[in-house]
Automatic annotation (TrEMBL):
Protein name as catalogued: GNAT family N-acetyltransferase
Key word Cytoplasm present: no
Binding annotation for acetyl-CoA: V92, T93, V94, R100, R101, G102, L103, L104, T105
Keywords (A to Z) from UniProt: Acyltransferase, Transferase
Length: 422
């Protein structure tokens, strides 16, 4: 039987090059990833890891916990130019043999403190399970939805210009020249849309596949061009072909779709929902404002399901973060008190919103609105309504003050749940 104080001899430290294979194996094992991890996998990750902090929890020379973070910009409400440097956290695992002894707490609190000391105003991550990260001040801030459309699904509406968009059928590798720039241009306007590094494109487009992924599958893709021939949209998909007798029952899974204009986005959807010998289209991680259902003659053909949190955010410097974003909501001031159980980012400030900006100053006045840091972090990117958090008891104050701050924090367009493949 394990000793109650078995955690005392466990060491948490930076990962050395010699530890990397065991570290990657430990991480994959705890995530229940079935494939063998080889030195080639470590080699494949070397460029990505070069600028990242890899932490391990060690029991003797065995890796029993993994944690990885790096500083990376994240778009916040306000449009192009509004972004925050964030502590991007990933690869969080603790071996089943060593769980619930405080190893995650040791790794994450040290990392958040270090990020705060570097002057990084926010941390964010994808949560494997929702109950894990609230205790550390994170709140669900970026959501996605799954849409499933029964095909054929005739369209009843199209935005202006959609008929002038030409959709080319290509393959993933053909997107390499156009997709990265187009994605970057689109993502800067969407809060939470994590920038994708160059190596992401090489890997997902099959040009530098991870070991064991030979990249020989057919990888159909769409490239939308406007009337001038400029690339304005991209979609990538796979088909899961199934036949029973002479009847097809095939699913098309869209893995990525982004466009510079509503016209290009609609043209891509129009192409995908009108394909022959396909019975349903399924797409996960779409932003909550995706227009697909609104294009259809029968919007119920696009059933939304499995909507869920995508990124969780954790403010580390409340005044810097509030001042860095744009504001659409009504002008007005309030004194906001924020409680941070980790003692990193709490305080009381006078927040004044006017002309699309906020000024934030320390205050000793009585607070008009008070909340825990996770609630403010959830609302910060403009998606989670503060009034809903108030209704759940996470935010307190005069209803009118809470409602105004909620309206101020809201933002359009909605957050965007991108994947980054780091
Ligand atoms: C999630 C995980 C990293 C937690 O590590 P850990 O070292 O066991 O966590 P800690 O011991 O520091 O737990 C701290 C607290 O969080 C709670 N907690 C941790 N994981 C939890 C979970 N999955 N669900 C609910 N509560 C959880 C613990 O009970 C503990 O609560 P307490 O302080 O009230 O006792 C680990 O269980 C794991 O690797 N799980 C599988 C992979 C995974 O989900 N990783 C996260 C991906 S983002």
């Amino acid at each position: 039987m394990e000793a109650v104080n078995a955690g005392e001899h466990l060491e948490v430290r930076a990962v050395e090059p010699d530890d990397q294979l065991a570290w990657l194996r430990a991480s994959r094992r705890t995530f229940l990833h079935p494939k063998t991890v080889t030195p080639e996998h470590v080699e494949h990750r070397r460029t990505a890891w070069a600028g990242q902090r890899l932490t391990g929890a060690f029991d003797g020379d065995r890796v029993v916990g993994t944690y990885r973070s790096w500083d990376w910009p994240l778009p916040v409400p306000g449009g192009p130019g509004h972004e925050l440097l964030t502590d991007h956290v990933s690869s969080v695992t603790v071996a089943p043999t060593h769980r619930r002894r405080g190893l995650l707490t040791r790794m994450i609190t040290a990392d958040l403190r270090a990020a705060k000391d570097r002057g990084v105003p926010m941390a964010h991550l994808v949560a494997g399970e929702a109950p894990i990260y609230g205790r550390y001040g994170f709140g669900p801030a970026v959501s996605g939805q799954t849409l499933e459309v029964r095909l054929p699904a005739p369209l009843a509406h199209l935005p202006a210009g959609a008929q002038d968009v030409r959709v080319e059928l290509v393959e993933d590798a053909d997107l390499r020249a156009e997709a990265p720039g187009l994605f970057a241009a689109v993502a800067v306007s969407r809060p939470g849309a994590v920038r994708r590094p160059e190596r992401y494109w090489d890997e997902v487009l099959g040009l530098a596949p991870a070991p064991g992924e030979d990249g020989t599958d057919l990888r159909p893709a769409l490239l939308a061009r406007d009337a001038t021939g400029a690339a304005v949209g991209v979609a990538r998909y796979r088909t899961r072909e199934k036949w029973e007798g002479m009847r097809h029952d095939t699913t098309l899974e869209v893995s990525d779709l982004f466009a510079a204009t509503p016209a290009a986005q609609a043209a891509l959807w129009q192409h995908l929902v009108s394909l022959d010998i396909v019975d349903r289209l399924r797409v996960t991680e779409r932003p909550l404002d995706d227009p697909l259902p609104h294009l259809l003659a029968d919007p119920r053909r696009a059933l939304a399901g499995e909507g869920s949190d995508h990124f969780w955010a954790r403010l580390l410097d409340v005044p810097a973060a509030l001042a860095a974003r744009g504001w659409l909501g009504p002008p007005g001031a309030c004194v906001l008190e924020v409680h941070d159980a980790l003692g990193l980012a709490g305080g009381r400030w006078r927040l004044e919103v006017a002309d699309g900006r906020a000024s934030v100053e320390a205050s000793t006045a009585t607070a008009g609105v008070a909340c825990d840091l996770g609630a403010l972090s959830a609302a910060y990117l403009g998606e989670t309504p503060l009034v809903a958090l108030a209704a759940a008891g996470r935010v307190r104050g005069e209803p009118a003050s809470v409602a105004r701050l909620s309206a101020q924090l809201a933002w359009q367009p909605t957050t965007w749940p991108t994947h980054t493949g780091f």
